[in-house]
From TrEMBL:
Gene3D superfamilies: RutC-like. InterPro entries: Endoribo_LPSP/chorism_mut-like, RutC-like_sf. This is Endoribonuclease L-PSP/chorismate mutase-like domain-containing protein. Residues 4-105 form the Endoribonuclease L-PSP/chorismate mutase-like domain. Pfam families: YjgF_endoribonc.
Length: 106
């Protein structure tokens, strides 16, 4: 369409290239807070991709349509939405409720 950007495959890698890893839901796994920070970092990386696609002008983003997220978790873990809330909240914080609100698959 000439005005639609699809962004896929974002991982929780920080500016130093370090990847956040681990599985949430294990007794000795990562904490919910760690998983939420990983989701937020994915959100940061999504925004960076949007920034690149708009040549540094995020005001060109008129709507965030959908966010799909996968959480590395145990079979019995049921709080996937609580993890992904941090990525969703970041998009709304950066773009405002009107542009940043989106549907979500968790």
């Amino acid at each position: 369409t000439g005005n639609l950007v699809y962004i896929a495959g974002q991982i929780p890698k920080n500016e130093q290239g370090e990847l956040m890893t681990g599985k949430v839901g294990l007794e000795k796994g990562i904490s919910m807070e760690h998983a939420q920070e990983a989701a937020k970092l994915c959100g940061v990386n999504i925004i960076a991709q949007m920034n690149a696609a708009t040549n540094g002008d995020l005001t060109k983003v008129k709507s965030v349509v959908k966010l799909e997220g996968f959480v590395n978790a145990t079979e019995d873990f049921r709080d996937h939405p609580k993890v992904l809330n941090h990525a969703s909240d970041l998009l709304v914080e950066v773009f405002g409720a009107e542009v940043g609100a989106h549907s979500r698959f968790a």
